[in-house]
């Protein structure tokens, strides 16, 4: 698919060609499907107390409403990304939408703990199928760098806004109706998205399962990723010895998978993928950045509820400025800023804003106020994420060959899940530990809770500093401002 240039580009601004229209319509479909899965990841959080009361979950048992989704979602992204390259990304995406929508209905009508947890696990599988191949499809749809930058800006804005919007909708639906509707709302959305995907997305022929279906390797990496997510999300809730044993087992599975891929005739994951400095470095930076942002979203919501005394619905409303700011900045400035200054410089600027935002939050006191202690850093974090995420996505995907785009997309999504889970586990454990320590010394609840959150925010700022340092060293391209150093897909190279 060739890019429009010269006079063709000028004409397309007023009279889009059918090809141009279908590509941007495809982007809308991909964004709609992704938004549904992202919303579901956050919409559950605010409804957890209502679910616990209705179905009788214990405290530890309630965590599995989230864990049952995250473990298959995070564990299967890499495998499904590769399978999407083999069987066709459109087929994988549409199948994922169907599975996710059906599982959402099962969640919505669940009347027991077991039924809800099982349906959430199926949701995680469907979410992984729909999410793992999206970036690869975007890079195939928009081969011209500037158009690709705009497409990534739109996609990133939807993803970033979906998280905060999920918090708001979760509170609104639970308070106005009941918790069942946080899942049932996916039925009409899913049906419309599936029909649109079938009609709008261009059919494509995958390479075929015979070219890379390494089933022993798939079992090893899926087991390793699922176990890794399980270890991370359970940190602080089990004995240290058990955590270390499980972590060692996950590491052993990763080592076995690596050995398998080096020797397999048709490996699931071509190890040469990691020779790309951009792809490997961007994924490492993303783990740190998403860890910071996901931890902020969770701890920040707890701060406004438990320290400032906000209700569930008011908490969701308090975070709405973030997706609005992200959407405006990504859609209005992101592509042009990357085109002018380059993805590397835009990424660094975004990470600096994230560091400053987290540092300001670390000063939020027990007697704080939303307008002075929460909103300013919230807007800084939103601006930083709006700058950093599209730039980081372009840098990561530009390091992958076309035939590996689905796998690279799955890898990028996997590091998001791992980073988010790791950041949440670390920051929430630190906050709880500091609060318990202060309470044991006789401190009052709200000041002790606020100080625990301050420690979490300070740690988040340090993690963001680490992301900034790593990005400044590993992702430096050496290109001048204004050059399209990213996003730019690598040229197609067909291999046997």
Automatic annotation (TrEMBL):
It comes from the Bacteria. Its main location: membrane. The chain crosses the membrane at residues 21-41, 61-80, 92-111, 117-140, 152-173, 179-201, 213-233, 239-259, 280-304, 316-334, 346-366, 378-398, 410-433, 453-475. InterPro entries: MFS, MFS_dom, MFS_trans_sf. Residues 26-479 form the Major facilitator superfamily (MFS) profile domain. It is found in: Cell membrane. It is a multi-pass membrane protein. Keywords: Antibiotic resistance, Cell membrane, Membrane, Transmembrane, Transmembrane helix, Transport. Signal peptide: none annotated. This is MFS transporter. It comes from Streptomyces prunicolor.
């Amino acid at each position: 698919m060739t890019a429009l240039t010269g006079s063709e580009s000028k004409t397309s601004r007023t009279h889009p060609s059918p090809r141009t229209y279908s590509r941007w319509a495809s982007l809308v479909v991909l964004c709609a499907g992704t938004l549904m899965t992202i919303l579901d990841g956050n919409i559950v959080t605010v409804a957890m107390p209502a679910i616990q009361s209705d179905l009788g979950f214990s405290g530890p048992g309630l965590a599995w409403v989230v864990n049952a989704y995250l473990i298959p979602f995070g564990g299967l992204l890499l495998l499904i990304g590769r399978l999407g390259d083999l069987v066709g990304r459109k087929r994988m995406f549409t199948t994922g939408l169907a599975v996710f929508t059906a599982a959402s209905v099962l969640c919505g009508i669940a009347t027991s703990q077991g039924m809800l947890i099982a349906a959430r696990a199926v949701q995680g599988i469907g979410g992984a199928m729909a999410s793992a191949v999206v970036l690869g499809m975007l890079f195939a749809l928009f081969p011209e760098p500037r158009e690709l930058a705009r497409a990534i800006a739109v996609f990133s804005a939807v993803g970033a806004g979906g998280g905060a919007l999920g918090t708001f909708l979760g509170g609104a639906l639970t308070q106005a109706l009941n918790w069942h509707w946080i899942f049932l709302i996916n039925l009409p959305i899913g049906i419309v998205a599936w029909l649109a995907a079938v009609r709008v997305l261009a059919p494509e022929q995958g390479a075929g399962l015979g070219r890379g279906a390494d089933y022993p390797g798939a079992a090893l990496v899926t087991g390793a990723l699922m176990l890794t997510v399980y270890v991370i999300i359970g940190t602080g809730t089990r004995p240290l010895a058990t955590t270390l044993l499980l972590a060692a087992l996950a590491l052993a599975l990763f080592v076995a998978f690596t050995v398998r891929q080096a020797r397999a005739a048709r490996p699931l994951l071509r190890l040469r993928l990691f020779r790309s400095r951009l792809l490997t470095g961007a994924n490492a930076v993303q783990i740190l950045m998403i860890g910071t942002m996901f931890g902020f979203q969770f701890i920040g919501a707890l701060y406004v509820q438990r320290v400032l005394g906000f209700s569930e619905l008011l908490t969701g409303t308090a975070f709405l400025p973030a997706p609005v700011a992200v959407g405006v900045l990504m859609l209005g400035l992101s592509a042009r800023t990357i085109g002018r200054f380059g993805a590397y410089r835009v990424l660094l600027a975004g990470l600096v804003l994230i560091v400053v935002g987290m540092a300001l939050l670390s000063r939020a006191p027990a007697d704080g106020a939303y307008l002075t202690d929460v909103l300013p850093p919230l807007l800084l974090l939103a601006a930083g994420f709006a700058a950093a995420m599209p730039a980081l996505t372009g840098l990561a995907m530009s390091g992958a060959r076309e035939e590996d785009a689905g796998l690279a997309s799955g890898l990028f999504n996997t590091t998001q899940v791992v980073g988010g889970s790791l950041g949440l586990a670390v920051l929430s454990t630190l906050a709880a530990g500091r609060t318990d320590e202060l309470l044991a010394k006789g401190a009052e609840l709200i000041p002790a809770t606020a100080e625990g959150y301050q420690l979490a925010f300070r740690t988040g700022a340090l993690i963001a500093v680490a992301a900034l340092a790593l990005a400044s060293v590993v992702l430096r391209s050496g290109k001048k401002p204004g050059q399209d150093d990213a996003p730019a897909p690598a040229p197609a190279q067909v291999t046997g």
